[in-house]
Design brief:
The chain is mainly alpha-helical and 646 residues long. It has a single domain, classed as MFS general substrate transporter like domains (Growth Hormone, Chain: A), CATH 1.20.1250. The protein contains 27 helices and 2 strands. A two-stranded antiparallel sheet has the order 1-2. Helix 20 crosses helix 24 and helix 22 runs antiparallel to helix 27. It is globular and about 70 Å long. 48% of the residues are buried. It comes from Cyclotella atomus. Keywords: Membrane, Transmembrane, Transmembrane helix. It is a multi-pass membrane protein.
């Protein structure tokens, strides 16, 4: 079959296949980024997702600095105003029991996150995204404040680190619950009615490319259909960008911890106050989320309602179609809450969607249930499948056997999971790759001290424990800065067409088209190229470990490169893929299960790599990381597929 008539202009024809902005058009590019930022700054749902992910990342990593500061504080408890101690009190000279307690604190967070990811995912489908988010953020707020006020007096039966481990477990439940909810809220949240199109992905595009038989009588219809496809692609890319923007807050959360702690230590604040502040400040983003819910309840769904009504009005011009205006739920709630106490009113506001109906979980309006409810579309516009290279992520619907359910016919969670097409292949793609990546990501962090020592020199000759604290925070800041660009590179490039030769867009370069084959930066493509880059970097580090120790700058560049391509790669895409893969009724649950698989990988990496390094050496472990990266690439290629042809 031939494509629609634009054969004389390769540029125009390519725009139909992949209507992406030309990177040479800086005005268009800046407009796209600015519109994304405007959405983030004006839409409470997107703000909630971003703030919650920022809170999660901050609370997850702050213990890396809190623990050494806390142990330093305990070692100087006899002299609380003293900031400098002799060599014998250095915080790095800890006994075996202290190491075990540190491990318990770290493991308690991971265990809580695994449970929280599954629980938060389920609650997102059962109660609604916003209600579930308020619950898990409430846990984060409580656990952050609880950890900040633990007692350093062991006479109560629990040691200081044991108390901290308990609060970290509770914090892990709240932090884990954010993973599926933040991703799904961003994917489903759009500033216009075309939100319904992002759930269809590239289905109609890929099928129509091969089905159109151009005829002069049908050119107008084909043009309209391709224009609809262009809007679908743009909304799909916008969805990817929103989720990537939400995930990029993780990088800001990571860097916030050393940015806060270094000035405190440099100004020699009370050491006990520092670690309590670092823990307690983890509640601040959650309080802002509560503020958004209490005082800014008007979400993007109102804008979607208005745009959807306008779209239907335009399509029915000249007709007699009547539109029922949506009820102002906020006014109804306010009138019903007049007789309630302040506390009851606050709780009712926070969790009002349980009573009023959360658009993110109920199937009440066409524009809110794009994956299932397609009754507002013409029959010819309903799609048959998500055409994927590996056929691993196909979402197939049949107009006769799979009628669009009404609000009264909405499926149960288990029914939705059972009706998910190719569930096993999809879940292996989202959960399996997440598991493999977290094995690398968390296991690889064990070697940060080795790399930093090789890059900045040994600290063995430093006899001041407080100076060691400052250097540890400096190292943490350095790693955060090196890995930060990868997060935002994903936001900028996802959905765009790139070439390994360096150009962002290639239309006229025959050399690039014939030799290098330009690649569209789909999530699958970004994930595969990230795994490949990590494979190469880990292999080089592993094979030339001894030589690289003498070339400090090169070792640091290679190690920083591995973090860059992790963040501009599977770290971002494993977070994104589950939110755009599954049916809306079970999307949050399966997203949570995929995230939990990732944390299991983190537990495996953190538990296995250190003993392996002690037995076989660091170079062997880095080579193992390279092999795991290769498996991640293969699994992505087989189960997720390369969608660059779209």
């Amino acid at each position: 079959m031939n494509p629609p008539p634009h054969e004389e202009d390769d540029h125009v024809q390519d725009e139909h296949v992949l209507p992406l902005p030309d990177p040479n058009d800086h005005d268009h590019e800046s407009a796209t980024i600015s519109s994304l930022l405007r959405l983030a700054l004006s839409n409470p749902d997107q703000q909630t997702a971003m703030l919650s992910n920022y809170s999660t990342s901050y609370n997850a990593v702050n213990v890396g600095i809190v623990l050494p500061v806390l142990k330093y504080s305990l070692s100087t408890s006899a002299h609380p105003q003293t900031t400098k101690v002799p060599l014998v009190q250095r915080i790095l000279d800890v006994d075996e029991q202290s190491d075990e307690q540190d491990s318990i604190v770290a493991s308690s967070l991971l265990a809580g996150m695994i449970f929280g990811q599954m629980l938060g995912g389920y609650l997102g489908d059962a109660l609604g995204r916003r209600n579930a988010m308020m619950m898990v953020m409430g846990l984060q707020i409580g656990a952050s404040l609880g950890g900040a006020f633990i007692s350093t007096d062991d006479t109560r039966g629990l040691g200081t680190l044991e108390q901290l481990a308990i609060w970290r477990f509770v914090l892990g439940i709240g932090a884990g619950g954010v993973y599926p909810l933040a991703a799904v809220m961003s994917a489903e949240n759009s500033g216009n009615a075309s939100n319904q199109t992002h759930d269809r992905n590239a289905a109609s595009r890929s099928s129509r490319q091969h089905e159109y038989e151009p005829a002069s009588a049908n050119e107008g219809l084909q043009s309209d259909e391709y224009e609809a496809d262009e809007n679908a692609v743009n909304e799909e890319i916008s969805s990817f960008q929103r989720v990537a923007l939400t995930f990029s807050m993780q990088g800001l959360g990571f860097i916030t911890v050393p940015l806060l702690s270094y000035p405190m230590l440099a100004m020699q604040w009370n050491i006990d106050l520092i670690w309590r502040l670092l823990l307690g400040l983890g509640a601040v983003p959650g309080l802002f989320v509560m503020y958004l819910r209490l005082f800014r309840r008007y979400s993007s769904n109102e804008l979607e309602d208005a745009n959807a009504a306008e779209k239907v009005h335009k399509r029915s011009e000249g007709g007699s179609l009547e539109l029922t205006q949506p009820t102002d739920d906020d006014e109804v709630n306010n009138s019903n809450d007049e007789g309630k106490s302040s506390f009851q009113s606050t709780v009712s506001t926070l969790f009002s969607d349980i009573v009023d109906g959360d658009p993110s979980v109920h199937v009440s309006d066409d524009h809110q249930m794009a994956l299932v409810d397609e009754s507002h579309l013409d029959v010819d516009d309903r799609y048959e499948g998500f055409n994927d290279c590996a056929d691993g992520f196909n979402l197939r619907y049949n107009n006769e056997s799979d009628p669009s359910p009404s609000a009264e016919q909405k499926q149960s969670l288990w029914s939705a999971i059972q009706q998910e097409q190719n569930l096993v292949g999809k879940f292996i793609g989202t959960a399996g790759t997440w598991f493999l990546f977290d094995v690398l990501f968390y296991g690889n962090t064990l070697f940060e001290p080795v790399v930093l020592e090789a890059a900045f020199g040994s600290k063995d000759d430093i006899e001041d424990g407080y100076t060691l604290l400052l250097l540890a925070v400096r190292d943490s800041l350095m790693i955060s800065l090196l890995s930060l660009p990868g997060y935002f590179m994903t936001v900028v490039l996802i959905g765009r067409r790139t070439c390994v030769c360096g150009s962002l867009r290639t239309h006229g370069s025959s050399r690039c088209n014939s030799i290098f084959s330009p690649c569209t930066q789909t999530p699958a493509c970004i994930q595969m190229q990230g795994f490949v880059a990590m494979f190469i970097l880990y292999l080089i580090i592993g094979l030339y470990w001894t030589s690289l120790e003498n070339i400090q700058w090169l070792l640091l560049v290679l190690y920083a490169g591995s973090f860059f391509f992790a963040n501009y790669g599977p770290n971002s895409t494993t977070f994104l893929l589950p939110s755009v893969t599954y049916l809306k009724e079970c999307r949050s649950t399966l997203n949570g299960l995929s995230a939990a698989a990732g944390k299991l990988g983190a537990l495996v990496g953190a538990s296995a790599f250190e003993p392996a390094a002690d037995r076989w050496g660091e170079s062997s472990v880095m080579i193992t990381c390279a092999i795991v990266s290769l498996f991640g690439f293969i699994l992505t290629r087989v189960c997720v597929g390369h969608q660059s042809r779209h």
